[in-house]
Design brief:
Blueprint lengths: L38 E5 L4 E5 L3 H10 L14 H14 L13 H11 L2 E6 L2 E6 L8 E3 L5 E7 L7 E8 L5 E8 L11 E5 L6 H17 L2 E7 L11 E4 L9 E10 L4 E13 L5 E6 L5 E5 L5 E13 L9 E6 L5 E10 L5 E7 L33 E5 L6 E2 L5 E2 L2 E5 L9 E8 L6 E2 L1 E5 L3 E5 L6 E9 L9 E7 L11 E8 L2 E7 L6 E9 L11 E8 L4 E5 L3 E9 L9 E5 L7 E8 L7 E3 L1 E4 L2 E4 L27 E5 L4 E21 L25 E10 L13 E2 L3 E16 L4 E26 L4 E4 L9 E7 L6 E5 L5 E7 L5 E2 L1 E10 L4
Parallel strand pairs: 5-11, 7-9
Antiparallel strand pairs: 1-2, 3-4, 6-10, 7-8, 10-19, 11-18, 12-13, 12-17, 13-16, 14-15, 14-17, 18-19, 20-23, 21-22, 23-27, 24-25, 24-28, 26-27, 28-29, 30-31, 31-34, 32-33, 32-35, 35-36, 37-46, 38-41, 39-40, 40-46, 41-45, 42-45, 42-46, 43-44, 43-45, 46-52, 47-50, 48-52, 49-50, 50-51
């Protein structure tokens, strides 16, 4: 045992180990663990003092000057002032470097590891060792544009971003064992993370520091995916690695224009109000613009401009500047939308070339990387600014699409051109746009250019389309530079043309004066309007179009008022288009007054439910009249006895006639008002019921159908002769309610269906022949002693009521009326001795009917 110092090297921290001799120990102690700290010069804020420290700045200096370096440097070779600033930032952020370097490594490799923990990298600036830190900076040291740079290039990494990092480090809180900390992207946790990547952090022993560094690296991967390179002449000397610069260039579309100040506009107060540029700039109304200038002293100056829509080469300052504070002629400038006239970059490296040029590599400044450990990481922003001419137009937005009657073009010869009219929302685009429309008919495999009749900024008319066809439409905006928007697609659009029902007539009103009803209505503005049709029913309340009979079949399309015979009941009117389609709803007007003198029903015929008239192709069934072949299944006793119950196979007629059994005979020719009541429903008997599982569960086999698919029309024929003596009848004509002059009337009903499986069903058919009240009178008629017969100028239908007003009757005189008929009456005057005398008188007869 020798009592002497075993290690003769000085400047080392030594540990003494005392071991108690036992039989458990044999040989040498080859493993010995301990927690140690380096005692090296450390910055206290005032001076460098040897003490235990893990600050990266102190260790960085120790690596350069300590015993581990075979060629330690003196202070003149080190930027001590910058290390002192870095030391303070590491201390405030809690960054430490803790590692055991028991292996051979170069000085630069160790410096690289130490600096990385302090968010920096080694650098030699002006011949002295220093660091370049990744710091948030606000003041640029240099400006680069195409005017002072060349050979621009850029690269972008499209690596798939991880959901989380597995940050590996030596955890001092767990006994200095290898550990890992999961660092997640915002909005992701262990249950949703899909992609992990591993990050090794040398020298980090704190879990909190490992998490902060992991967040920093996630932010760098997201916000700095691009690398920019360009060359510059001697101006590259102004900046160094890590410096903040402002950059504008047309290739990456940073800013809208770069140039130099060509002149200044000075007002009377020696204020600069505008700047002339050596290049033309374009502005759009509604946007804000700014100009950044590199002044002669290298300072960066930003000025807000007055927006002047259009292309200009002189910009007006929003706030005038004194001459001393305004840019000078020749200053480098960058123009663009406010805040986007240039981008902030950090110099990553500078590679000198010949002729005093250098290749500069930069990355995005991305200030958010420095706050990733205290807030969310924002999405990447390209910082691209597009001029309006470079912006892709927005996709067209179709506000309204029309192809019905409102879009038709009516020609002088009455023909129509069908078209599609597209109404577009105004596009949010400042430059003129052209609409490119492609069309594809159903069954076509490829789109073809549409035939455009006319086009404005918000409306386009397409022709060359067929009514009833379906088309796919593809719409794109095309800008002045040929840039195209995404397509707006419209699939399977059916062209209506004249196929749509006409608009409903509105505001039908009726005014009755005497025996005339004056009707008026609001005209329908449909371009394909053909005429109006007027119907009447004596019923009021809830009435249906099918319950009314024709009053006027066709009313000219330009007519808005009409006079018709007055009758108590409901008038109904619809519009009819050129295709014969009628409007969906009828305008109605109720006339409860009728003719002032009243009506007298001299003949009525009620056919339902007996329907005893002559039937051709029609049958009576269940008290109703319908086309032949339509069996009523409600009365079937045994469905199994029916060979087929697929209706439509039974040979149902599509047309049938029903004629009222006996003509109406008025006995003489009279002027009469003829009205009718007709109730029509539709029945679809074409539905297949073979597959019905439970026929007993159906309450009714009768179903309503579209009233436009069937019809029941009433006809009338007239004669002046005796209907019972084979007279000459007029031709059948469509019946309309009105006044007729005839002795006899015949009526028939025509039933039509567009499909053999459809039938109209007549549940009520009534005819009424009315005669209006009328009166006839005369004055000063001389009656001889024997009396006389007074004949009416026109015979009444029935004997009227007669009143007499005698002239100058003597005492006891009286008169007697005998033989009063529809044609006249016999009158004789008597005295008190019952002897006939001559007298004068006036009379008035009131009845109904007017013989012709």
């Amino acid at each position: 045992v020798r009592s002497s110092r075993p290690v003769r090297m000085t400047g080392l921290a030594m540990t003494a180990l005392r071991i108690k001799a036992t039989d458990q120990l044999n040989g040498m102690v080859d493993r010995f663990n301990g927690v140690v700290q380096a005692i090296i010069p450390d910055w206290t804020g005032e001076s460098w003092v040897p003490q235990a420290t893990a600050n990266p700045a102190a260790i960085y200096r120790h690596v350069l000057q300590g015993a581990g370096n075979g060629r330690p440097l003196d202070d003149a070779r080190i930027d001590v002032a910058r290390l002192q600033d870095w030391h303070e930032r590491c201390r405030l952020a809690g960054r430490e470097f803790n590692a055991v370097i028991d292996y051979d490594a170069s000085v630069r490799d160790i410096l690289q590891d130490v600096a990385a923990v302090g968010r920096a990298s080694p650098a030699v600036i002006d011949g002295r060792w220093s660091v370049v830190e990744d710091l948030a900076q606000a003041v640029p040291v240099q400006h680069f544009t195409p005017r002072n740079s060349f050979a621009f290039e850029a690269q972008k990494s499209f690596d798939e971003q991880p959901s989380a990092l597995r940050v590996r480090f030596v955890n001092r809180d767990k006994g200095w064992v290898q550990d890992e900390r999961l660092v997640f992207v915002d909005g992701i946790d262990e249950t949703t993370a899909e992609r992990y990547e591993t990050l090794e952090l040398a020298g980090v022993t704190s879990s909190d520091q490992a998490w902060k560094d992991g967040r920093y690296h996630l932010a760098v991967a997201r916000l700095r995916p691009e690398t920019y390179q360009f060359s510059a002449d001697i101006e590259h000397l102004v900046c160094t690695r890590g410096d903040l610069i402002r950059f504008a260039h047309d290739v990456p579309m940073f800013g809208l224009m770069t140039g130099r100040i060509a002149a200044r506009v000075v007002d009377e107060a020696d204020q600069v109000t505008a700047l002339a540029l050596d290049a033309t700039v374009s502005m759009t109304a509604g946007k804000s613009y700014s100009l950044r200038v590199r002044r002669g002293d290298g300072q960066s100056q930003t000025m807000t401009l007055v927006t002047q829509a259009g292309a200009v080469n002189q910009v007006t300052l929003a706030a005038a500047l004194p001459l001393a504070e305004a840019p000078q002629v020749g200053d480098l400038c960058m123009f663009g939308e406010s805040g986007l006239e240039s981008v902030a970059l950090v110099v990553k490296s500078i590679e000198p070339h010949g002729d005093l040029t250098a290749r500069i590599t930069c990355v995005d400044a991305a200030p958010a990387v420095h706050t990733a450990d205290i807030g969310e990481i924002p999405p990447f922003q390209s910082q691209i600014t597009l001029a309006d001419a470079d912006l892709p137009p927005p996709a067209p937005e179709v506000q309204h699409l029309q192809s019905g009657e409102e879009s038709l073009i009516r020609h002088a010869d009455g023909s129509f051109t069908t078209r599609i009219v597209l109404t577009l929302r105004p596009a949010a685009y400042s430059l003129p746009l052209r609409l490119d429309v492609m069309i594809r008919a159903e069954g076509e495999s490829a789109f073809r250019p549409a035939e455009i009749l006319s086009a404005t900024a918000t409306q386009v008319s397409l022709v060359g389309v067929e009514e009833g066809e379906r088309y796919d439409l593809s719409l794109r905006y095309v800008g002045p530079g040929g840039n195209r928007s995404t397509a707006a697609l419209i699939s399977g659009y059916a062209v209506e043309g004249t196929a749509a029902l006409p608009s409903d007539v509105t505001r039908l009103s009726v005014t009755v004066l005497g025996d005339v009803a004056h009707l008026s209505w609001t005209p329908v503005g449909d371009i394909d309007l053909s005429h109006y049709t007027l119907r009447y029913t004596p019923e009021t309340g809830a009435v249906d179009w099918q319950q009314a009979v024709a009053l006027v079949e066709k009313i000219a399309m330009d007519t808005t008022a009409l006079s018709v015979p007055a009758a108590p009941g409901t008038y109904m009117i619809k519009a009819v288009d050129v295709g014969g389609r009628v409007s969906a709803l009828a305008a109605q007007a109720v006339s409860p007054v009728g003719i002032g003198g009243g009506f007298n029903a001299v003949e009525t015929r009620q056919e339902a439910p007996a329907f005893t008239g002559t039937k051709t192709g029609v049958v009576r069934m269940d008290g109703a009249l319908r086309l032949d072949g339509a069996d009523s299944m409600d009365d079937w006793s045994d469905v199994d006895d029916i060979d087929t119950i697929d209706f439509g196979a039974s040979g149902l007629l599509a047309e049938g006639l029903y004629e009222i059994a006996s003509p109406v005979d008025l006995g003489a020719v009279y002027r009469s008002r003829v009205t009718a009541t007709l109730h029509v429903q539709g029945l679809d008997i074409g539905a297949l019921i073979d597959q019905r599982s439970d026929l007993d569960g159906l309450e009714s086999w009768d179903g309503d159908i579209d009233p436009t698919r069937f019809a029941a029309l009433l006809d009338i024929a007239l004669t002046d002769g005796d209907p019972g003596a084979d007279p000459v009848w007029s031709d059948w004509q469509a019946f309309v309610i009105g006044d007729y002059t005839a002795r006899g009337y015949r009526f028939r009903l025509r039933l039509y269906s567009e499909d053999p499986s459809l039938t109209p069903v007549i549940t009520q058919l009534g005819i009424t022949v009315d005669m209006p009240d009328r009166s006839e009178s005369a004055a000063g008629i001389e009656v001889p002693t024997g009396g006389m017969t007074v004949f009416y100028s026109n015979a009444f239908y029935a004997p009227p009521a007669v009143s007499v007003a005698p002239h100058n009757l003597g005492t006891g005189d009286y008169y007697a009326i005998t033989d009063s008929t529809a044609d006249g009456f016999f009158i004789r005057f008597y005295n008190s001795a019952d002897t006939g005398v001559a007298r004068r008188f006036d009379f008035a007869a009131r009845g109904y009917g007017f013989s012709v």
